């Protein structure tokens, strides 16, 4: 390849695929849930579980803050339901950390949200 061809390729416009907000949310839920699943396996360390629970809790705290914002365009009923799930997630996480419960309910909730985000993609 000559210098002119290298320059053409180097300065050619690059196209990055744009993701919708919903697709970004789905990707985040998938990543956090995958980490939570792996950390919930019997051969995982408690430190791994703590890290995964922290990431999950941070995701839900951020989601709750967005839901509480007046500019959120979701219907009020859906916002209230999701906010309720955020509160449950926080409470259940504390129980998992105290080894009173497993993370299965948190994983189930995240998977339900993920299915909903993927089902409505492109709508």
Describe the structure.
This protein has 123 residues and is an all-alpha fold. It has one domain (19-119). The chain contains 5 helices and no strands. The chain has helices spanning 3-11, 21-40, 46-68, 76-97, 104-119. Helix 3 runs antiparallel to helix 4. The longest helix has 23 residues, at 46-68. It is flat and about 65 Å long.
The share of residues in extended strands comes to under 5%
Total helical elements:
5
Give helix % range: over 70%
Distance between the termini: 45 Å
Total separate domains = 1
Brief synopsis:
By secondary structure, the protein is mostly helical.
Outline the secondary-structure elements.
Elements: H1 3-11, H2 21-40, H3 46-68, H4 76-97, H5 104-119
Essential attributes:
123 residues; mainly alpha; 5 helices
């Amino acid at each position: 390849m000559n210098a002119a061809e290298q320059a053409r390729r180097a300065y050619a416009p690059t196209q990055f695929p744009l993701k919708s907000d919903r697709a970004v949310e789905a990707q985040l839920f998938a990543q956090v849930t995958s980490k939570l699943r792996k950390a919930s396996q019997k051969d995982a360390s408690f430190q791994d579980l703590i890290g995964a629970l922290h990431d999950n809790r941070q995701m839900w705290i951020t989601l709750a803050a967005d839901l509480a914002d007046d500019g959120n365009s979701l219907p009020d009923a859906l916002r209230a339901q999701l906010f309720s799930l955020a509160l449950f997630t926080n409470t259940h996480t504390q129980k998992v950390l105290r080894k009173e419960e497993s993370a299965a309910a948190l994983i189930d909730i995240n998977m339900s949200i993920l299915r909903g985000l993927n089902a409505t993609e492109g709508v």
